[in-house]
Description:
The protein has 9 helices and 16 strands. It starts with a helix and ends in a 9-residue tail after the last strand. It is α+β, with helices and mostly antiparallel strands. The chain has helices spanning about 1-20, 50-65, 70-75, 85-100, 110-115, 130-135, 165-180, 275-290, 290-300, and strands at about 25-30, 35-40, 145, 150-155, 185-190, 195, 205-210, 220-230, 230-235, 240-245, 250, 255, 260, 265-275, 305-310, 315-320. The longest helix is centred in the first third of the chain and has 19 residues, at about 1-20. Helix content is about 35%, strand content about 25%. An 8-stranded antiparallel β-sheet has the order 1-2-5-6-9-14-15-16. Bound molecules: adenosine monophosphate (AMP) and magnesium ion. Adenosine monophosphate binds near residues 107, 110, 163 and 283. The site of adenosine monophosphate has 19 residues, from α7 and α8.
Amino acid sequence: MKSFKLFFLAFLLLGLMSCHRKESLHIVDGLTMGTYYRVTYIGENNSQLKDEIDSVLNDICHTFSVFDTNSLISKINKGEVAIVNDDFQKIFALSKEAHQLTDGAFEPTIAPLVNLWGFGRTPAAQDATLYLDSILDFVGFDKVILKEDTIIPSDLRIILDFNAIAKGFAVDKVTEFLQAKGYDNCLVDIGGEVKASGSKNGEPWRVGIQEPTQDKSGALVADYTFNMSDVAIATSGNYRNYKEENGVRYSHIINPKNGCPEKSNLLSVSVLAKDCAIADALATGFMVLGMDRSVEILNQHPEYAAHFIYWDNNNYKTYSTKNFPKRAN
Length: 329
Ligand code: AMP
Ligand code: MG
């Protein structure tokens, strides 16, 4: 009887100890979409996970990469294919939503203008303004229809490009993949677009927004850190990718209304949303719209929150919507 009691006590102690044992944290690093990715997950180590995550990301690139001439989007843009897959249908629907929400500022047919101004793979055209009107003729997401799984462009010169939403979409897909594997507590970061799920051993995940500095080299400081759980954040900024002429900064983000690079005083917009794809698209759209109009839209949509960094009288200033997480540092 005594040995049974001892055995029972040891069993109880082991049980209590395992209740308090922290589950281990693992990191998977890699490269995708011209940037880094970092996946942090809690639980059993899984040595196959990196290959599986790479495979999820490769599938996305094979659908949306405009740099891969054999990708689905490249074939669509060349007029070789009209039938699209599930991911394409999803990104198309999310893009329509973001396009409408941002008064058309988020514009997935903007690529010919990105190229005209030299932000694509080719140098800027001489006298770019001369070509604006003719190119604007075939820019406009309303000129493309998706009927079930078939893309119908109204003009064969239209080029689709989901660069400004694809990273966020990939963050959501990798998160869904991890959750399907039972990893409910994870943090997925692709080039600064982040989704936090569950918790880090009972604590919320901590995320930082990098504050930009004046020079092109970056020298970014993670200055604004906050806690996040079951929510995503995406940032669009013109502090690293821009051209300067006569002291004016031209952003790589193009205003579809006039076809020109934005000259606004906004340096970056970070959008918080349940899903990262929509956060990514809205962040790009808000960069075009500017802070005032974006805040008007955000006031009508409390399901989104945002943090703006802007340049005012030679100083950085920030503005956060009321529902944006408070500083934890
Ligand atoms: P992001 O870093 O998510 O803001 O995406 C920037 C990329 O989106 C640029 O490099 C362009 O390829 C593309 N882009 C530029 N202007 C727009 C726009 N108005 N709407 C959608 N995509 C754009
Ligand atoms: Mg974006």
